[in-house]
Amino acid sequence: MTAQEIASALKMELHRIAPDIDADAIDPDALLREEYDIDSMDFLNLVAALGKRFGLPMPEEDYPRLSTFSGIVTYLCDKTGTPD
């Protein structure tokens, strides 16, 4: 798996959670919850979907690392051993 594949999977999950997000216009460093109006339930659904997709536990203490698109990609690369 590559970082690009992880980013593509994240875009698909974000689109599923919030279909109005233009995946090609995502600012990788913007706070997802503020920039795209993702509420706490949507965020939890996103985390759960990513955990399931990648077969990873995603504990609550890691949530601060998941605040931006690039942060999520880096986190998933770290957890899966993928170079980013």
Summarize it:
The protein is built from four helices and no strands. With 84 residues, it is an all-alpha fold.
Comma- or semicolon-separated keywords:
4 helices; 84 residues; mainly alpha; 55% helix
Per-chain topology:
Elements: H1 3-17, H2 32-35, H3 40-54, H4 69-80
Helix pairs in contact: 1-3, 1-4
Alpha-beta content class: mainly alpha
Q: Which stretches are poorly predicted, pLDDT < 50 over at least 5 residues?
A: none
Rg, alpha carbons: 12 Å
Overall mean confidence score, pLDDT: 93
Quaternary state of this entry equals single chain
Q: Level of helix content?
A: 40-55%
How would you sum up the global shape?
Answer: globular
Count helical runs.
4
Main β-sheet description: none
The number of distinct β-strands equals 0
Helix-strand string: HHHH
For the terminal residues, how far apart are their CA atoms?
Answer: 10 Å
